């Protein structure tokens, strides 16, 4: 397929990033992060997760953040929900999207959610029923993790990933996404799996989520682009990771991904200078935490401004 002319960088740093570090950002700073990301042109942000505050105090203010983010024009507000109770909170908060994580690895699923993959599918069916009964417009996205392998289980057959994907759609998920949770993917594997997933799910395959554990996140994004995927999760400064991936270096960095796409001529709507300014601000808030990414070090190349300057009439 021809790569898309436009792509979305969905910022997930406020959830996937902050849940993986020790620093607990005050709600006001999170709101400032959301506001500045929106001003930089980002239009999809995962603001948190509806999980018990005792488990993840970093995300205890998710409902407040949804309410704030919903005041910004054109912003699609996502949250992660691990179970029906979380889904009910997302529906009550009027989040636009609730992402339900499902690990294709049986071992990772039990370690991460204390449920088997099929039990997660059954939970999605209950979420769909609750969503429909409430007359809510919140979309349900089934996110299939450990799709390329698992530190606990090892090999994860592509056929199992596709089985889980079909099961999620049959259970009532509106769309599905694929995640390389522990950084085992390579571009050839990404191209093969996403092509099969596209054949199965069509346009309901909506997003790729790549961790940069072994430095291949952007290469894997490129491979997924070639299959027609036009939405990718990323975190500012590449923060985050997975507790079951020792030595993980975090997610694809939002600023690096936005630059790569823009330099390829793919429109993201993102002002890179503003995004880099936000990265600098957030780096100050997260002093002492492990940050990643490379664009912030070197800056935009001199040729970038000329190549992307508006044409004269």
Describe the fold and architecture.
The protein has 313 residues and is α/β, with parallel strands linked by helices. The chain has a single domain (8-307), classed as TIM Barrel, CATH 3.20.20.70. 42% of the residues lie in helices and 14% in strands. It is built from 13 helices and eight strands. The protein has helices at residues 13-17, 27-39, 62-69, 84-93, 106-113, 117-133, 158-171, 187-201, 217-225, 254-263, 272-285, 295-298, 302-307, and strands spanning 8-11, 44-49, 76-80, 97-103, 139-145, 175-180, 205-210, 231-234. It has an eight-stranded parallel sheet with strand order 1-8-7-6-5-4-3-2. β7 (205-210), α9 and β8 form a beta-alpha-beta unit. α2 (27-39) runs parallel beside α3 (62-69). It starts with 7 loop residues before the first strand and ends in a 6-residue tail after the last helix. The model has no long low-confidence stretch (mean pLDDT 94).
């Amino acid at each position: 397929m021809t790569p898309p002319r436009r792509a979305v960088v969905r910022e997930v740093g406020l959830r996937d990033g902050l849940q993986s570090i020790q620093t607990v950002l005050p709600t006001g700073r999170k709101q400032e992060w959301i506001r500045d990301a929106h001003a930089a042109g980002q239009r999809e942000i995962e603001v948190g997760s509806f999980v018990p505050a005792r488990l993840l105090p970093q995300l205890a203010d998710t409902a407040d953040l949804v309410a704030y983010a919903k005041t910004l024009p054109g912003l699609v507000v996502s949250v992660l929900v691990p179970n029906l109770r979380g889904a009910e909170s997302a529906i009550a908060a009027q989040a636009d999207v609730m992402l339900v994580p499902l690990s294709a690895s049986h071992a990772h699923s039990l370690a991460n959610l204390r449920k088997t993959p099929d039990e997660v599918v059954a939970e999605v069916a209950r979420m769909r029923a609750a969503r429909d009964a409430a007359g809510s417009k919140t979309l349900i996205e089934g996110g299939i993790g450990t799709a390329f392998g698992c530190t606990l289980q090892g090999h994860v057959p592509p056929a199992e990933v596709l089985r889980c994907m079909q099961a999620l759609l049959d259970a009532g998920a509106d769309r599905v996404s694929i995640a390389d949770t522990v950084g085992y993917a390579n571009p050839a594997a990404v191209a093969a799996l996403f092509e099969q997933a596209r054949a199965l799910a069509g346009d309901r395959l909506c997003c790729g989520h790549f961790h940069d554990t072994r430095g291949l996140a952007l290469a894997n994004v490129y491979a997924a682009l070639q299959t027609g995927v036009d939405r990718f999760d990323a975190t500012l400064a590449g923060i985050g990771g997975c507790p079951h991936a020792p030595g993980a270096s975090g997610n694809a960095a939002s600023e690096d991904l936005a630059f790569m796409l823009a330099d390829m001529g793919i429109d993201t709507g993102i002002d890179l200078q503003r995004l880099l300014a936000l990265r600098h601000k957030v780096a100050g808030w997260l002093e002492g935490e492990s940050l990643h990414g490379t664009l912030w070090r070197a800056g935009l190349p001199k040729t970038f401004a000329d190549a992307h300057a508006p044409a004269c009439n």
